[in-house]
Amino acid sequence: MKTLTRVGFLVTLLAGCTPGANIQTAADAYRRGDLETAARECRSAGDKLDDHVPSVDSTRARYLAFCGLVHWKRGEREPALELLSASKHDIDAAKANGEPAWIGPDVIAEVERALAELQAAPKR
Questions:
Q1: How far is Cα 111 from Cα 1, in angstroms, rounded to an integer?
Q2: Along the 124 residues of the chain, how does pLDDT read in single tens digits?
Q3: CB-based contacts of 66, cutoff 8 Å, min separation 6
Q4: Structural domains of the chain, with CATH
Q5: Are 75 and 101 in contact (CB under 8 A)?
Q6: Which H, E and C letters describe the chain, residue by residue?
Q7: Do 45 and 53 meet the contact criterion of CB atoms below 8 Å apart?
Q8: How many alpha carbons fall within 13 Å on the CB side of residue 113?
Q9: Cβ(112)–Cβ(101) under 8 Å?
Q10: Of 45, 54, 57, 55, which Cα lies nearest the Cα of 21?
Q11: How many Cβ atoms sit within 10 Å of the Cβ of residue 43?
């Protein structure tokens, strides 16, 4: 009976993953080029994120950057532009305030490159 209880607890725990865990899985999948898994994990994280997460929160920063990049790679212009614009805003605000951006310089560069491409492309 104890084993069944432990298994049930683990299943419940895994089914209710935190947004941070979803975003980590999305980031890992994105880096592997598995955009389907990344998109699924981004949707799951987005469903769990609270609109009131502070902008200095690492979960929000990683969600905006990685999930914006996933949308960009999938050719989903509007959600990519929305998330990447918010990501860039938060990155710039963190830099101005001497706070961490919570994402690495390689990801920041990719966010900036994707955003520049999206802003330069005509709307369809």
A1: 50
A2: 444 444 443 443 444 578 889 999 999 999 999 999 999 999 999 888 865 455 557 888 999 999 999 999 999 999 999 999 999 998 998 889 898 888 999 999 999 999 999 999 877 6
A3: 23, 26, 27, 30, 38, 42, 107
A4: 19-120 (1.25.40)
A5: no
A6: CHHHHHHHHHHHHHHCCCHHHHHHHHHHHHHHCCHHHHHHHHHHHHHHCCCCCCCCCHHHHHHHHHHHHHHHHCCCHHHHHHHHHHHHHHHHHHHHCCCCCCCCHHHHHHHHHHHHHHHHCCCC
A7: no
A8: 8
A9: no
A10: 45
A11: 14
Closest CA to 65 of 107, 11, 4, 28: 107
Tokens of residue 37, six digits: 């898994």
- Looking up tokens 């209710």 gives 16
